Each structure stands twice: as structure tokens, then as C-alpha cells.
Amino acid sequence: MLPTAIRSIEIFKLFLPLHEPFIISLGPIKEVQNVVIRIRTADGCTGYGECSPYLTINGESVDTCFVVAQYLARGLHGHDALDIAGALAIMNRIIYANSSIKSAFDIALHDIAAQQAGLPLYAFLGGKSDKVLTTDMTVSLGPPAKMQADAVRFQQQGFPAIKVKLGETLEADVARIRAIRAGIGPDHLLSIDANQGWHTADAAIAVLRALAPYHIAHCEEPIARHLFMDLARVSAASPIPIMADESCGDEHDAARLIQLRACPQFNIKLGKSSGLHRARKIVELGEAAGLTLQVGGFMESRLGMTAAAHLALTSAAIRHCDFDTPLMYTEDPVLGGICYRPNGIIEVPDVPGLGAIINEEYLRNAEKQVIE
């Protein structure tokens, strides 16, 4: 057996409470329901990965991920952990889609590979620690007064950019942004995310035009992802730059959107792309097309967000980071990992590998399966 052959894979369910429900147009999130993967190689190296499945976006839940992970683990047992492309090919032969749980395996394999190379993950991916990463902070969907209060609080906490969840009626969404601008002033960087909530291109264009006076930096996913053929028309008519999110899952989606000239920006998430290997392909396509890129996530802990932060250091085209969800947790299960500094600054670990693990206390009593 190769020293770097996969000897065992542990699969854990990770449940954690939030300070308050996180609400978007697709529905509320009341608690963290994630899956953690821990891979051990024959020579004793250990890699960690995590995913945060989302029923209405990637069609996965903590329970489907837990079951599918067992199929994937059996298929990967004995495989060389350094052959990441081969591991992804095995997983894709075992089951179609399921990008969220595949991303957790991908992150753990990259953790091992970067440790074996003696490099921080960003350097293993070809990146440099030559830019300062800052995260936005997201205002959950709700009444205008509550959203204004949250935005003001985030501004006072020093976050350089505020992201606002929208996606309801024109009148309701304009009222929300009007209230937020009244609270934070006209100049603070503000973006919006409709999460596909404006159901037609015409409806989206109407809302985007109505929001033009409020100086919005960009809008994520204004229309349903199956309407991607209409996204170019929305982009052309919108005074606000459009960023594809749910409609840009993997590199194939990215290539299609670029060919259609659908929008000038992409939001990359590891849970949509199946992990770092395929996310890098989106980055390369975006760079070549001159697009502006954002790296974000779902409800990952600092472990999953650390992987995303390493990715964000690999390209100058990645200009926005949306790494705020761990700040919504009431508990932090991660040792190491990214650190949140004043003014939204993110510090990325500079040790070999991912540089983050899950505290054993959170795994000891978790539901788990072991494949060895």
C-alpha cells in the first residue's frame, strides 16, 4: 500500500445553533446542519473537509450527505490521496451531482496533499498571500426596521461591505434598501442578493431599476437559475452589475454563462462546484473572460470557510469575499483556521495544509460512520 493511500474515512454530522434564524428568499435557516469528513492515510497524515448542504440550492441535506458519503468513502478507500483528480473521477462514477458532499472529500484531500507538499493550501493551489482579504456581513431578510438596525450594527462593527438579502416584491425590497441607506448613509459599500426571488426577467429589471438611486455594487442571482437564457437581457437592462450564483455551479455552468455573455460577475462556492479542484477551473475561465469573481459559501464553519479563503488568495480576479456565516454561530467548533480581525479583515493560516481542524469535543458525541 502506498504511504499516501487512504486508510480510513470518518463521516460526522455537525449540528450547531445560530444566534438567530438566517432568512433568505428561499426560506429560513434555523440551525447549522453540516457534514465533516476526516481522511487518514497509511502514513498517518490526516485531512479535514466540511460541507453545508442546502436543500433548495444543491438538493442535498445533512442526511443525504451522510448516506452518500458512505458510498464515496468505500469507493475511495485505498486510493492514493494525492491523486485528487482521480478521486473526483471515482466519486463522479459512483453518483451523479451531490456536489456538496463531494466538496467535503475534495477539501480533505487537498488538505492532505498540501501537508505532504509542505505548503499552505493557498500556495499549493498556486496562490500568494499578497493581498488582504476582507469579508462582508449579511443582513438577513426581514422587516425594513430590523434590516436597517442590523446594517447599522455591522457598519459600526467595521465591516467594509454589507450584503442584503432581498427577493420579494418591488415595493418591499425598495423599502428595505431605502431604510438601510437611511441608516448607513449613501457611501458604505452595499450589495444585494435576491436568491432567485424575482421570478421573471421583467420583474427583476423593474426592481433593479428602482434600486438604482441607492448605489448598489452588484446583485446576486436576480432570477431563477433555470432562466439563465434571460440573464444577459437582465444584465443589459440593469443599472446594477449582475453576479451569477445559483446558476453558476461548476465550470460547465461558468463556460455556458460566459458564452452567453450573461453577466460580468460570478460567485464561486465550493459546495456548488464539488470542491477546490473544479472551483479553480471556474476561476481560470473567469480570469480569461475578464470577469470579477467572489468566493462565498453556505453555512460552513470556519473550517469550510478556511478552504474558501485559501481559494480567494489564488487570483487577482477574486475581489469579493463572503465569509461571514461562522460569525452567526453561537459556538465555534474549529481549532486553527481563518481569524476574523477588525474591519472585516480575514487572516489565512500560513501552515502546511488547510490549517484547520474540528475540535474533538464536537466530534466525540456526533453521529458518525467509519470506513476502513
Automatic annotation (TrEMBL):
Cross-referenced InterPro entries: Dipeptide_epimerase, Enolase-like_C_sf, Enolase-like_N, Enolase_C-like, Mandelate_racemase_C, Mandelate_racemase_N_dom
Keyword list, A-Z: Isomerase, Magnesium, Metal-binding
Cofactor binding: number and manner: Binds 1 Mg(2+) ion per subunit.
Keyword flag Isomerase: yes
Keyword Magnesium appears in the UniProt entry: yes
GO molecular function: magnesium ion binding; racemase and epimerase activity, acting on amino acids and derivatives
Domain Mandelate racemase/muconate lactonizing enzyme C-terminal, residue spans: 144-241
Active site: K165 (proton acceptor), K269 (proton acceptor)
Sequence positions that bind Mg(2+): D193, E220, D245
GO terms, biological process: peptide metabolic process
Named cofactor requirement(s): Mg(2+)
EC number: 5.1.1.-
Matching PANTHER family: O-SUCCINYLBENZOATE SYNTHASE (PTHR48073:SF2), O-SUCCINYLBENZOATE SYNTHASE-RELATED (PTHR48073)
Similarity section: Belongs to the mandelate racemase/muconate lactonizing enzyme family.
Name listed for the protein in its UniProt record: Dipeptide epimerase
